[in-house]
Design brief:
The protein is an all-alpha fold. It has six helices and no strands.
């Protein structure tokens, strides 16, 4: 009878320990998953700030200069594409498409800025100068948000891939996430030519 009680107590203790491990591991994975979602939301918030700011700059440029229509058309088309893509951070393809659209938007906006710089009356307006400072700040915010996202993904991926979290991650369907990656070729310094 005593042996049977000891076996029952041991089995119950094992069940409690395994239940506790499962509870802690699952909740840790959920917490890390939510941190990834939150970090991505911060990235999107900063992209939205950029889009809003660029929209304001476009209006200032439209009102202050008579410039090439094709440049503005490119910016407007790129803005439309960048804001129309829905991102599912569980799907690396949508994340990549979103980043490509943001990159095209930024590139077309850079052309607009170059055109705007050619107009002295626009260049000297206080509003335009303020926008340039805000744009630089926004780009810095985007960069920090991307770094924070990658740090959060790193923590999440570690919890999914390390023992014993990997066992519970497999049981509950948690998979590793992709990091935010720079465009190909950005590791090379830009060729600056002042001719």
């Amino acid at each position: 009878m005593k042996t049977r009680n000891i076996v029952i107590i041991a089995i119950l203790a094992l069940i409690v320990i395994l239940g506790g491990c499962t509870y802690n591991s699952y909740n840790g994975l959920v917490r890390n998953d939510q941190n990834v979602q939150n970090a991505w939301s911060n990235v999107e918030t900063n992209y939205q700030r950029r889009t809003d700011l660029y929209n304001s700059v476009i209006k200032v440029v439209q009102g202050s200069a008579n410039f090439e229509k094709s440049t503005l058309t490119d910016v407007i088309a790129a803005r439309s594409k960048a804001t129309s893509i829905s991102v599912n951070i569980n799907d690396p393809a949508t994340l990549k498409a979103y980043e490509q659209a943001q990159s095209q938007f930024q590139g077309s906006f850079s052309k607009l800025m170059a055109v705007a710089e050619a107009y002295p009356n626009l260049k000297t307006t206080q509003a335009f100068q303020d926008f340039q400072v805000q744009i630089e700040g926004t780009e810095n915010r985007i960069n920090i948000a991307r770094q924070d996202f990658n740090n959060t993904v790193n923590s999440y991926n570690l919890s999914v891939r390390t023992f014993p979290g990997n066992i519970f991650a497999g049981m509950f369907g948690f998979k590793t996430r992709d990091y935010f990656q720079a465009k190909a070729g950005t590791d090379s310094p830009p060729d600056i030519n002042f001719k």
